[in-house]
Amino acid sequence: MALKHPPQTTERLEQREQQMRQAEELLGSLPQATGVAKGLFHGQFIHDWVFPYPSLSRQQNADVTAAVASLSQFCDQHLDPVQIDRNADIPRDVIDGLAELGLLGMTAPLSFGGRGFSQKQYCRLLEVIGARCSSTSIFVNAHHSIGMRGLLLFGTDGQKRKWLPDLVLGKKLAAFALTEPDAGSDASNVQTTATPTADGSHFVLNGQKRYITNGAIADVLTVMARTPVEGTNDSAITAFLVTPDMPGFQVTEPRMEKLGIRGTATARLAFDNLHVPRENILGPIGKGLKVALTVLDFGRTTFGACCTGAAKTCLHLATEHARKRHQFGRSLAEFELVQQKLARMAAWTYAMEATTTVTAGLIDRGLEDYMLETAMLKVWSTERLWTIVNDAFQIYGGAAYFTDQPLERMLRDHRINQIGEGANEVLMSFIALTGMRGPGMQMKEVDDAMKHPFSGFGTFTHFATAAVRMRLRTPPVPVRSAELKPIAHRLGKQVKRLGTTVQATLVRHREEVLERQLVLERIAWIAMELFATACTLSRLDSEWVNGDRSRDAAAQFFIADSLRHVDHCFASLRDNDDERLLAAAREL
């Protein structure tokens, strides 16, 4: 007799099955080659992804130094973040000026009018913009890092020749249209449909998009829509290149009123029987999810650069104010609780820059899968920046609350960072589940092998040997400075501890781990801190080898503080108040 579940339980089980199918659709599209982030969940440290610290060639450094100088001069003379915020618009002469500097097509190939800059070089430039005006940095990011990135990566030769030259030169602007009323962080839940015409020459788009940066001013938009899978009742996401002159393209709200980043043109769009030519399909049909996720990788990397620039501005403002402002006969900088904030800001800013550089270096090396690293960078940097902005605000005191000070605008501008390009809560679950997928698949193979002991003996033996090796061997972290070897060894021990913890978590929760978001959050934080610590240690090691000890204290404080947070997260996996927390939430 079949067991009958109560209606609520049945619905919950069906939801869990749907979550598992969506997770497989998403995670199954990713390459499974182990990288630095995925390795952490196996208790391994793939050190050549982090060490030695990425550097630019002499020519690259000269090129980007000159570009940074030109951009800084332009921003000092023409970029007015207060006016942009007040008028809720980035002036066209500013956009044209950025285009003349090449910023709107900096990483595009020379053959299309770009500068051919690497991702590390480009991040240096986005840091300059991010330090001054969040609206402008997001505008540039929406155009270059995500708006036309799909065309650069997945476009056909014909598509590139048709659109790239004008986009690279800033004569036309680009946007990326993914978000819908029911699809944002849940990228696989796109509901906009694209139905092929009878002759197959066009696809007819119907649906809505919202929160689209540059949506009302863009000349070319990468639009995600759901297309039928031939021979089945299923559908899959496909990317399309859409232009606003196509009949059926509607801008239902050109500039949505916002709390912050007011200068960006954030639009609502609608497609009403919009006919898109088949030749405007971007990438393989049905593979739009891969296009979207790959594009977002680039956006999240430059997100880290923009956050670094903003963090440096906050640190500068807070430090200067703390030195000048006197209370109770002393400067604010002499009080330990203020020093605590300043030291934390300096440490996180140093680490943020290091983690951004290493992540950008993964892209520059042509590696295939860096999705987990970019997600970690986005979550970690935006969470830390929000605290940095808040701490700078606190040091300024009541003065920061008034509109003649930049921190009031920065507070409004940077709240969106933890939501945009994937809400941090969703990304933390993604980080943990993606990282644990490899170990989980290995354990499933062992579980299957146990049911067939003769044929599966080799699988079980291999797993058992690897598990014992992981527990007995601390992965090496190859620093060159002898003074840093104890720290490196401690980092290696924490990596090993994460590997064993992941196995124990999977054994304990099995498929239920999908819903254990409090557990997933702690595991994600452990992995993010270990990644940030590794990047920071790599930077510090490089600086010490080159005789630079100017930021020694901030770097060492970050590493110690980050690893202390890791210890706290490990402890809270065993000792927590989760049941009381959930009980209190259920009472509401």
From TrEMBL:
Q: Which residues form the Acyl-CoA dehydrogenase/oxidase N-terminal domain?
A: 67-170
Record-linked InterPro entries: ACAD9/ACADV-like_C, Acyl-CoA_Oxase/DH_mid-dom, Acyl-CoA_Oxase/DH_mid-dom_sf, AcylCo_DH-like_C, AcylCo_DH/oxidase_C, AcylCoA_DH/ox_N, AcylCoA_DH/ox_N_sf, AcylCoA_DH/oxidase_NM_dom_sf
Residue ranges of domain Acyl-CoA oxidase/dehydrogenase middle in the record: 175-273
Ranges annotated as spanning the membrane: none
A Pfam match is: ACAD9-ACADV_C
Ranges for the ACAD9/ACADV-like C-terminal domain?
Answer: 483-574
Task: Specify whether Iron-sulfur is a keyword of the entry.
Answer: no
Q: Using the record's annotation, list all stretches that form the Acyl-CoA dehydrogenase/oxidase C-terminal domain.
A: 286-432
Q: Which cofactor does it need?
A: FAD
Q: Does the keyword Oxidoreductase apply?
A: yes
Q: Which UniProt keywords apply?
A: FAD, Flavoprotein, Oxidoreductase, Transit peptide
Family according to the record: Belongs to the acyl-CoA dehydrogenase family.
This chain belongs to which protein, by name? Acyl-CoA dehydrogenase family protein
